[in-house]
Design brief:
The protein starts with a strand and ends with a helix. The strands form 2 sheets. It has a 6-stranded parallel sheet with strand order 8-7-6-10-9-11, with helices on both faces. A 5-stranded mixed sheet has the order 1-3-4-5-2. The protein is an alpha/beta fold and 233 residues long. The protein has 2 domains: 65 residues, Hypothetical PUA domain-like, domain 1 (Ribosomal Protein L25, Chain P); 157 residues, SPOUT methyltransferase, trefoil knot domain (Alpha/beta knot). Helices cover 30% and strands 26% of the residues. β9, α5 and β10 form a beta-alpha-beta unit.
Length: 233
Amino acid sequence: MPLFFSPGINDVENCLDIEESRHCVKVLRKKTGDEIDITDGKGNIFIAELIDLNPKKCQFKVISTQSIKKTPFSIHIAIAPTKNSDRTEWFIEKAVEIGVDKITFFQSAYSERNRINIERFRKKAISAMKQSIRAYLPELTGVENLNELLSTDFSGQKFIAYLDPESPKYLKDLAKANGNYIILIGPEGGFSPEEILQARNNGFQTVKLGNHRLRTETAGIVACSILNTINQT
Protein backbone atom coordinates (compact mmCIF):
# COMPACT_ATOMS: atom_id res chain seq x y z
CA MET A 1 0.00 0.00 0.00
CA PRO A 2 1.37 3.49 -0.85
CA LEU A 3 2.63 5.55 2.07
CA PHE A 4 1.51 9.18 2.39
CA PHE A 5 3.26 11.98 4.28
CA SER A 6 1.56 14.40 6.66
CA PRO A 7 3.84 16.05 9.25
CA GLY A 8 1.28 17.76 11.48
CA ILE A 9 -1.19 15.04 12.48
CA ASN A 10 -3.32 15.97 15.51
CA ASP A 11 -6.47 14.91 17.38
CA VAL A 12 -8.76 17.54 15.83
CA GLU A 13 -8.75 17.82 12.02
CA ASN A 14 -6.27 16.29 9.62
CA CYS A 15 -5.77 16.86 5.89
CA LEU A 16 -3.24 15.80 3.30
CA ASP A 17 -1.50 18.71 1.57
CA ILE A 18 -2.44 19.60 -2.01
CA GLU A 19 0.23 17.40 -3.62
CA GLU A 20 -0.61 14.35 -1.52
CA SER A 21 -4.35 15.00 -1.91
CA ARG A 22 -4.08 15.16 -5.69
CA HIS A 23 -2.12 11.91 -5.76
CA CYS A 24 -4.66 10.23 -3.50
CA VAL A 25 -7.74 11.36 -5.44
CA LYS A 26 -6.62 11.81 -9.04
CA VAL A 27 -3.90 9.16 -9.39
CA LEU A 28 -4.85 6.39 -6.97
CA ARG A 29 -8.60 7.16 -7.27
CA LYS A 30 -9.28 6.47 -3.62
CA LYS A 31 -12.86 6.60 -2.35
CA THR A 32 -14.51 7.85 0.83
CA GLY A 33 -14.11 5.21 3.51
CA ASP A 34 -10.90 3.79 2.04
CA GLU A 35 -7.98 3.30 4.40
CA ILE A 36 -4.50 4.67 3.73
CA ASP A 37 -1.14 4.52 5.50
CA ILE A 38 0.44 7.82 6.55
CA THR A 39 3.71 8.78 8.23
CA ASP A 40 4.53 12.02 9.99
CA GLY A 41 8.25 11.52 9.37
CA LYS A 42 8.81 11.45 13.12
CA GLY A 43 8.60 7.71 13.67
CA ASN A 44 4.84 7.14 13.48
CA ILE A 45 2.82 5.16 10.94
CA PHE A 46 -0.92 5.86 10.95
CA ILE A 47 -3.79 3.89 9.47
CA ALA A 48 -6.37 6.47 8.47
CA GLU A 49 -9.83 6.52 6.92
CA LEU A 50 -10.61 9.01 4.15
CA ILE A 51 -13.65 11.14 4.99
CA ASP A 52 -13.58 13.93 2.37
CA LEU A 53 -11.96 13.42 -1.03
CA ASN A 54 -11.14 17.00 -1.98
CA PRO A 55 -8.18 16.93 -4.43
CA LYS A 56 -6.83 20.10 -2.81
CA LYS A 57 -7.48 19.19 0.82
CA CYS A 58 -8.17 15.51 1.43
CA GLN A 59 -9.50 14.96 4.96
CA PHE A 60 -8.89 11.83 7.00
CA LYS A 61 -9.34 10.48 10.50
CA VAL A 62 -6.77 8.36 12.31
CA ILE A 63 -7.84 4.82 13.13
CA SER A 64 -4.65 3.49 14.67
CA THR A 65 -1.03 4.49 15.28
CA GLN A 66 2.17 2.46 15.27
CA SER A 67 5.34 4.01 16.68
CA ILE A 68 8.53 2.75 15.05
CA LYS A 69 11.54 2.51 17.34
CA LYS A 70 14.62 4.43 16.22
CA THR A 71 17.78 2.49 15.47
CA PRO A 72 20.48 2.43 18.18
CA PHE A 73 22.83 4.24 15.78
CA SER A 74 22.66 7.46 13.76
CA ILE A 75 24.33 8.43 10.49
CA HIS A 76 25.15 12.01 9.58
CA ILE A 77 26.56 12.51 6.08
CA ALA A 78 28.13 15.92 5.48
CA ILE A 79 28.71 16.33 1.77
CA ALA A 80 29.74 18.98 -0.74
CA PRO A 81 26.93 19.56 -3.28
CA THR A 82 27.89 18.49 -6.78
CA LYS A 83 28.02 20.84 -9.76
CA ASN A 84 25.17 18.88 -11.33
CA SER A 85 22.21 19.00 -8.94
CA ASP A 86 20.78 15.79 -10.40
CA ARG A 87 23.69 13.86 -8.94
CA THR A 88 23.10 15.36 -5.49
CA GLU A 89 19.41 14.48 -5.75
CA TRP A 90 20.37 10.92 -6.68
CA PHE A 91 22.57 10.75 -3.57
CA ILE A 92 19.73 12.01 -1.35
CA GLU A 93 17.29 9.48 -2.78
CA LYS A 94 19.58 6.50 -2.29
CA ALA A 95 20.89 7.57 1.13
CA VAL A 96 17.34 7.89 2.46
CA GLU A 97 16.42 4.48 1.05
CA ILE A 98 19.50 2.88 2.64
CA GLY A 99 19.10 4.73 5.93
CA VAL A 100 20.49 8.13 6.92
CA ASP A 101 19.51 10.41 9.79
CA LYS A 102 20.96 13.73 8.73
CA ILE A 103 22.49 15.25 5.60
CA THR A 104 24.45 18.48 5.78
CA PHE A 105 25.71 20.29 2.70
CA PHE A 106 28.89 22.31 3.08
CA GLN A 107 31.15 24.64 1.14
CA SER A 108 34.89 23.99 1.08
CA ALA A 109 37.96 25.26 -0.75
CA TYR A 110 37.33 23.20 -3.90
CA SER A 111 33.53 23.28 -3.87
CA GLU A 112 31.77 23.31 -7.24
CA ARG A 113 28.49 24.75 -5.93
CA ASN A 114 27.65 27.01 -2.98
CA ARG A 115 23.88 27.36 -3.47
CA ILE A 116 21.27 24.63 -3.33
CA ASN A 117 17.49 24.34 -3.53
CA ILE A 118 16.93 22.87 -0.09
CA GLU A 119 13.15 22.62 -0.57
CA ARG A 120 13.58 20.60 -3.76
CA PHE A 121 16.08 18.35 -1.98
CA ARG A 122 13.63 17.90 0.90
CA LYS A 123 10.92 16.79 -1.54
CA LYS A 124 13.33 14.19 -2.90
CA ALA A 125 13.94 12.97 0.65
CA ILE A 126 10.19 12.75 1.35
CA SER A 127 9.62 10.81 -1.84
CA ALA A 128 12.40 8.36 -0.98
CA MET A 129 11.10 7.95 2.58
CA LYS A 130 7.64 7.07 1.25
CA GLN A 131 9.00 4.76 -1.44
CA SER A 132 11.08 2.77 1.05
CA ILE A 133 8.28 2.75 3.68
CA ARG A 134 10.33 4.54 6.31
CA ALA A 135 8.88 6.31 9.33
CA TYR A 136 11.62 8.89 9.83
CA LEU A 137 12.41 11.82 7.55
CA PRO A 138 16.11 12.72 7.68
CA GLU A 139 17.10 16.26 8.60
CA LEU A 140 18.58 18.27 5.72
CA THR A 141 20.68 21.37 6.37
CA GLY A 142 23.04 23.58 4.38
CA VAL A 143 24.97 25.17 2.92
CA GLU A 144 27.36 25.44 5.87
CA ASN A 145 30.95 26.59 5.89
CA LEU A 146 33.30 23.64 6.37
CA ASN A 147 35.30 25.49 9.03
CA GLU A 148 32.19 25.92 11.17
CA LEU A 149 31.11 22.33 10.58
CA LEU A 150 34.50 20.98 11.70
CA SER A 151 34.34 22.86 14.99
CA THR A 152 30.75 21.84 15.82
CA ASP A 153 30.36 19.66 18.91
CA PHE A 154 29.50 16.06 18.02
CA SER A 155 29.15 13.13 20.38
CA GLY A 156 30.29 10.13 18.39
CA GLN A 157 32.82 8.95 15.83
CA LYS A 158 34.02 11.55 13.35
CA PHE A 159 35.42 10.62 9.95
CA ILE A 160 36.62 12.36 6.81
CA ALA A 161 36.81 10.39 3.56
CA TYR A 162 40.35 10.79 2.25
CA LEU A 163 42.76 8.57 0.32
CA ASP A 164 45.64 8.96 2.75
CA PRO A 165 48.72 7.08 1.46
CA GLU A 166 50.41 7.31 4.86
CA SER A 167 47.50 5.93 6.86
CA PRO A 168 45.30 3.72 4.66
CA LYS A 169 42.58 2.87 7.18
CA TYR A 170 39.13 1.76 6.07
CA LEU A 171 35.83 3.07 7.39
CA LYS A 172 34.56 -0.51 7.73
CA ASP A 173 37.41 -1.28 10.15
CA LEU A 174 37.24 1.85 12.30
CA ALA A 175 33.50 2.41 12.72
CA LYS A 176 32.02 0.72 15.79
CA ALA A 177 28.51 -0.70 15.83
CA ASN A 178 25.64 1.07 17.60
CA GLY A 179 27.32 4.45 17.52
CA ASN A 180 26.71 7.94 16.25
CA TYR A 181 28.67 8.83 13.13
CA ILE A 182 29.47 11.87 11.06
CA ILE A 183 31.48 11.48 7.88
CA LEU A 184 32.64 14.25 5.58
CA ILE A 185 32.51 13.70 1.81
CA GLY A 186 34.42 16.28 -0.20
CA PRO A 187 33.84 17.76 -3.68
CA GLU A 188 35.32 16.30 -6.88
CA GLY A 189 38.59 18.12 -6.17
CA GLY A 190 38.79 16.65 -2.68
CA PHE A 191 39.84 18.48 0.46
CA SER A 192 42.75 20.90 0.65
CA PRO A 193 45.76 19.97 2.84
CA GLU A 194 44.72 22.72 5.25
CA GLU A 195 41.22 21.27 5.55
CA ILE A 196 42.57 17.77 6.21
CA LEU A 197 44.83 19.16 8.94
CA GLN A 198 41.99 21.15 10.49
CA ALA A 199 39.74 18.09 10.44
CA ARG A 200 42.36 16.00 12.20
CA ASN A 201 42.89 18.72 14.78
CA ASN A 202 39.16 18.59 15.48
CA GLY A 203 39.13 14.84 16.07
CA PHE A 204 38.20 13.56 12.61
CA GLN A 205 39.83 10.32 11.46
CA THR A 206 40.82 10.01 7.80
CA VAL A 207 39.32 6.89 6.25
CA LYS A 208 39.17 5.07 2.94
CA LEU A 209 35.84 3.86 1.58
CA GLY A 210 37.46 1.41 -0.82
CA ASN A 211 40.44 0.96 -3.09
CA HIS A 212 39.32 3.26 -5.89
CA ARG A 213 38.56 6.95 -6.31
CA LEU A 214 34.83 7.65 -6.16
CA ARG A 215 32.64 10.48 -7.36
CA THR A 216 31.22 12.64 -4.58
CA GLU A 217 27.70 11.24 -4.73
CA THR A 218 28.97 7.66 -5.02
CA ALA A 219 31.22 8.15 -1.99
CA GLY A 220 28.24 9.39 0.02
CA ILE A 221 26.21 6.31 -0.90
CA VAL A 222 29.10 3.93 -0.14
CA ALA A 223 29.72 5.55 3.27
CA CYS A 224 26.03 5.30 4.13
CA SER A 225 25.93 1.66 3.06
CA ILE A 226 29.06 0.73 5.02
CA LEU A 227 27.77 2.27 8.25
CA ASN A 228 24.38 0.56 7.88
CA THR A 229 26.02 -2.79 7.13
CA ILE A 230 28.24 -2.55 10.21
CA ASN A 231 25.10 -2.25 12.30
CA GLN A 232 23.41 -5.28 10.76
CA THR A 233 26.03 -7.83 11.77
